C-alpha cells in the first residue's frame, strides 16, 4: 500500500517543533534499556536496567553503548535528551518513525537515522524498523522501535574482543552498527533476486496471468526499498568524508568501505528495476504471443469449415431443378469438392507460413 | 485542466514592470487585515483593523505579524509597499497568483512565496492558495488570497506561549508559517495515497474502464502538485543555508528540518508517480488479459460448433443418392460423429492448455 | 515538418566566416529603419528614415533605439556593423534566421538573439521571427525579419513616459523588449493549453481516430517550442547575473524577474509534454477499450447464434429415420431447446461478467 | 549493423601501446601528400609530392598545411611522427579509424580527431571518414582515410585570399577545417529531416508495414550519428576556452561560433529522436486503428448475417408439423422477419456508434 | 539469473571488518604464485614458486610482478598483506569476488579492482573473473580467481622487451594490465554486436517468438555488463588525473588513453541498449503486424462466405410456396446471386484497401 510511505502528518501538522509526540505504531509494551560499558581491557553488559543506572554508566570513564528498545515513551526520550543536551528537533525526529535516512551534525553530537531491514525466514517476510544513533564523544545511544535487531554479531565481537572494536572509540562502534545494517540489506536483496529469477522462469515456462500481480507487487517493493535506502548514500558519504570531529581518521576509512557497499546496494536495486521491467515486458509479450497463437489456430479452423458449410448449404437448397442432385456420384462429387477446398486452403495457409 | 497551470499573461503582456494589476480570481469582497503584536511577555491580537492602525502597530517596538486576507485591492498592496519600501517587482509578484515558489533577498527584507494547499474534508477537495511572506527585521507580513488558512495552530502557540515562538524573532514566526504549510502537504499526500490504494485494489478486483479516467485524473493531479512544489526545495534550502542576515542561526536549524520535510514530500510525489504508472500498467494488462480470456472462450465455443454445423449441413444436402441417409441408424451415426468431433476438439484444446 | 528545425546549411557550408549571406526567407521588399530618440524629458520618434539620418541620431547624446525591420539586405547590416564596430561573426549571426537563443559579450557591445513568437488570432496561427539585439552604451539596435512585433506596449510606455523606462538607460530598454517577448510566450502557451484541454475532453467524450493526428501535431509543436526556448534560460540567467558592465545593477534585478518567467515557461512546456503524453495514453486506451467492447458484444451475439444454427442444421438433415421429426410437437421441442440454449449461454456470460 | 560501432579490438588487444597497426579498411592504394604553403602575400600548392619535399616545406618559414590522404601506411605516419615529435599514442590514434572525437593537448602540438561525414547525392548515401588534425606552431597536418573531402571551399579561400584565412595562423586554418566539417553535418541532417517528413506523410496517408523497417533504419542512423558527434561538443568547447597556447584569442572567438553550431547539431539530433519516436508511435497507432476498423466492419457484417442464417436454418428443418411452412405467405413472412432482424441490428449498431 | 549480481552477504553480515573470509566460488585447488623480476636489462620469470621465495624476489632491487592465481586461501592473502602492510579492509576486498571496480589510495600503495572478462571461443561463452592489483613503489601484485587470463601479450612484451615496458616502473606495468583488460572488453562487445545483428536480421526475415527470449537474455547480459563496467570510468579517470604519487606523469598519459577506451566501451554499451530496444520494438511490431495480416485475411474469407451461406440457407427453407424454387433457372439464379454478392464484397474490400 502507498500508505506504507506516508508520514502520519495529520496528527501533528502545525504543532510546535520539538513537541514530543510519538508518530508510528507502538511495538512494545514498555521501554527496555541495555548498556554495554567497555574499554580495551573489559566489557560489562547490563541487561534491562533502569534509567538512572543507565545514565550513571554513561557518565563513567569508559566507552558506553546505551541501546533503547521502544520509542513510544516520550518521557524516556525527554529524559535522555535532557541528560545529553540533545536538540528538541532531534528528539522529535527520534520519535517519528517515517524519517528519511539523514545525518545531522551538532556541536557535541552526531545524529544518524537509518532504516534497519530484517528478513524473518520463518515468516518469509521483511521487517522494517527505524534505528536512530546519537554519537557523542564517549557514548553511543541507539534507539530501536522494538526488540530484536541485526546487531548480535557486533555484541559478540565486543564480548569476545574480536577485531579492533574494544580498542577503538564510540565512532568505531557506530561504524560497526551502520555496517551491520547495510550488510543486512544484501540479505534482503538476495531474497528479491531469487524471486525475480523464479518469476522469470515461470514466465518462460508458463506465463499465467497471476504472475502479473506478483511482478507488480515485487516492483512496488523495489520502489519502496529504493526510496528508503537512496538517501543513505549521502549520509554515509558525509561520514566517510569525516565532516565531523567526532569521527576519527581511522574510522573514516571504514565508513568509506560501507559507502562502497551502499553504492553496491543502490546499483543492485537499479539493476533489479531494469530486470523487473524486462521480465514484465517478456511476460506481456509472451502472453500476447500465446493468445495470438490460440486465436490464429481457432480462426484457421473456422475459416476452413466456413466454405465447406457453404458448399453443403448449396446442395441443401430445394430448387426443383438442380442437376448435380440427380447425378449418380453427386454426393461423392460434393464431398470431393469439399475435400479439395479444405486441402487447398490448408496448402495456402501453410505456404503463407500461418502455421 | 491545463488552464490551471497557466499564467493569465494576455492581460499584461508588455506592460511596464511593477505596474500593479491583480492577476487571478478575486476571492473576497474586501481586504481583511489582522495584526498580532507580541513579545516574550504578552501577545495582542487585533482582528480586522484598518490600514493606518495596522501600520502603527508595525512601527511599534514589539514583533508584529500583519496578515492580509485578499490581494485583489492594488491600493492596499501599494500602501503597504510604500510603507515598507518594497520593490515594485515584489509588489507585482504578490498580486500575481501563478507564481513559482521563490525566495528573493533584498537589502532590508526577504520575499518568500509558496503555495498553501488545504484539504476540505466536507467537500472532499483540495484548495490551493498563494501565500506571500515579507520578512523584515521586526515585522512579518503574510498575504493570502482568501480567509481560512493552515495557520490556526501557529496562532494558538502564540496565544498560549507554547514552545519558543513568543521568545524568538519574526524569522522564527516565518519558519512556523512555512512549516505549517509544508506539514499540510502531507495531509494532501495521504489523500492521494489512499486513492492510489483504492484504485489499485479495484484494478485487481474489478478492472472497470472508468478506472482509467480516474487514474488519468490522479496522475494529472500529481503532475500539477509536483510542478508547484518542486521549486520549494531550493527556496527552503536557501533559508536553511542562512543566506540572509534576516535569518538567525538558531532559526536556520529549524529551516533545515523543514527542508528535510520538503525533500520527503518530493520523494513521496516521485514514488506516487511510479506507483500510478505501475497501477496503470497493471490495469491495462489486466483489462487486456480479461478481454483476451473472453475472446478466447467465445472463439473456442464458436470453433467447436462450426465443424458440427458443417456435418449437419452435409446431411442436409438433397442428393438423390446419399447412402447414409437411408441407414437405419444414420441419424445416430451422424450425432455420434458430431459428438466425437466436439470431444476431439475439446481434448485437443485442453491438451494445448487453451482453457 | 522537420524542416522547420533545419539550418539551411548547404548554401553556406565551408564559406569564410563573417561572409554576409542572408539565410532564411526574405519577408519584406525593403528594409525599414525606425529610430526613437529619448531621455527623461522628451522622446522623438522617426518613422522609416534613411540610414545616414539614423546613424546620426545614434551618435547624438540621448539614448537611441534603432529598429531594423528586414534583414535580407546584407549592405544594411554591413553598414551598421561598420559604424558600430560589430564583429563579423555577429553580423553573420544577425543574417541567419535559425540561430539558437544566445548572448555574446564583446568589449563594447552585447549581442542577444531570441525567437519572437506572435499569435495571430485572425489566422489562428503562430508566427515565429528572430529578433537580434545589439546593446551598446547609449544605443540599442533591434533587428527583426519583418514588420509587426510585440513591442507596441514598450513604444507606448516610451511615448507616455510610463514607469521608469524614459529615465533609465538602454539596458533597461533591452530588458523591456526581452520581457515583452517572454511575456508573449505565455499567450502562445495559453493557446496550446486550451487545445490540450479540448483534445482531452474529446478523448473522454468521443475518441475519434483523427484526435491521434491532432495530438501528434500538438506534441510536435511543443517539442519545437521547447527546443527553441530552452537555451533562453541560460541567456537571461547571464543577463541577471550582470556578467557584463553594460547591464546596470538595477536592471539586473528586472532581468532576474524575466528569468523567473522563462523558467515558468519551461516548467509549463514540460508539464504540457507530460499532459500530452497522458492524453495520448488515455486516447489509445479508450479507443482500444471501445474497440474491445464492440468486438466482445459482436462475438457474444455470434457465439449465441452459432449453437442455435447448429441445432437448426441437425433438424434440417435428411435422414430417413429421425424420430423427432415425426413428433407432434417436434417443432416446438426444437424451438424450446434453442431457446433454452440461448438462455443458458446468456446466463453463463452474465455470470462471468462479460456484459 | 551494430558492427559499424565496433572497435576491431581483437586484432590488437594487449599489444604494446604506440605499436603502429592500422585498424580499419584500407581505402586507397597508396598515400597522397598535398602541401599548401601560404602567408598573407602568396600561396603555393604542391599536389602529390613526396615525403622529403613535404617535410622540407613544413620546415620553411611560412604557414604550411600538409594533407595526408590514406592512413594505412604505418611507415608514412611513423616518418611524420618522428619529424614532428608526435607521441606514440597519438600516432596509434591516427591509425585507428574508430576513435571518439577528442582533443589532446601536448606541449608542442594539439591533436584533434573528428568524424567527417559527406553526403554523396549521386549515390544517395552518407560516407563517414575519420579526420585527424595535428596543429603545431606553423604547421597543420590533416590525415584522411581517403581522397575527397569537404575542404574544397577552404582551399578556394586560401587560393583567392578571401576572408582572413591567409593573414591568420595555422590555428585559424584548423578552425576553418573544423568549421567545414561541422557545417557539413547540417547537410546530412537536412537529408534525415526530409526523410522523416516523407515517412510522416506516408504514415498519415498510407501506413504500410514497410515504413516500420524504414523508421527503424532511420532511428538507427540517428543513434549512430548522435554517438559519433556527441563528444565533439566538449572538444570544441575546449578549443573555444582557449585551453592551449596554440590557439590565439581571436581564433578562440571563431571556435565559440563552431561550438554554437555543434550544440545546434546535437539539439537537432535530439529533436529528430523525439520526432522519430512520435512518427513511430503515430504509425503503430494508425496501423492498429486501421486494422481495428477493418475487423470491426467485417465482424459487423458477419454478426448481421449469423442470426439471418439461423432463421433460414429454422425454416429448413424437416419437421413434419411446422405450421408456418404451410402458410400462403410463409416465405414472405420469413424474409420479412429476416429483414426486420437485419434492420434492427443495424439500427442498434448505429445507435451504439459502431459505424 | 539475478543471482549473478548478488553479494553473498548472508555469510558475513555483521562480521568484524577485515575478517578474512573468502566470498565466492573456489575455482582452483591450490594457489599458484608467479613472479616476474625485471629491469631495463633483463627479465627473470619464476613459475609456481613458494611464498617465501616470492617475497624475497619482491624485496629485491628490481621491479617485480607477483601474480597470485587463486584467492580462496586466506592464509596466503594474510601473509602477503602482512609483508606489504596492506590494510585489513583491502585484504578483505581482495577475497570478495563481487566488488565494484574501485581505486583506493593508501599512503604506500594503490588498490585497484576491476572485472576481467574473457571470451572462450571454443565454449562460446564469456568468463568473468575479478582482478585485484596492489601497486607499491617497486612491486605490482595481481590477484586472480583462477589461472588463465588476458595478460599473455603483456608477458610477451616483458620477455621480448617490446615497447617501453621493461624500461618503465611498476605503474606502467599496472597500466599495461589494465589496458589489456579493457581492450578485451571490445572482444566481448564484438560478440554482442554480432548477436544483435543476427537477431535483427532474423526479426526482419522471420520473426519467430523465440527471438523474444533471446533478445531478453541479451538485454540482461548488456544490463549486467553495464553495471559491472560503469564504475571503471571513475577509477581510470582518477588514475589518469595522477591523484597518487605512485603514478608517474608519463604513465598518466597512457591511463588517459585507457580512459578514452573505457568511455568508448560505455558508449558502445549504451548504443547497444538503444539498438536492443529498437530490435525488440521492431520484433513486437512485426509479429503484431503479421498476426493482424493473418487475422484480416481469414476474416475476409469468412465474411465473404457468411452471406453466401445465408443465401443457400434461404433456398434450403422448406416453405410450401417459394416461387424461385420452381423456376427453370432458379438454381442458376441463386448461384448467380451468390457470385455477384461475393464479387461485390471483394470489390468493396479492395476499394477500401483491405487487401
TrEMBL record, chains A, B, C, D, E:
It comes from the Bacteria. The chain crosses the membrane at residues 298-317, 329-349. It is a multi-pass membrane protein. It is found in: Cell membrane; Membrane. Its main location: membrane. Signal peptide: none annotated. One of its GO terms (molecular function) is magnesium ion binding. SUPFAM superfamilies: CorA soluble domain-like, Magnesium transport protein CorA, transmembrane region. One of its GO terms (cellular component) is plasma membrane. It holds the Pfam family CorA. Keywords: Cell membrane, Ion transport, Magnesium, Membrane, Transmembrane, Transmembrane helix, Transport. PANTHER family: CORA FAMILY METAL ION TRANSPORTER (EUROFUNG). Mediates influx of magnesium ions. Belongs to the CorA metal ion transporter (MIT) (TC 1.A.35) family. This is Magnesium transport protein CorA.
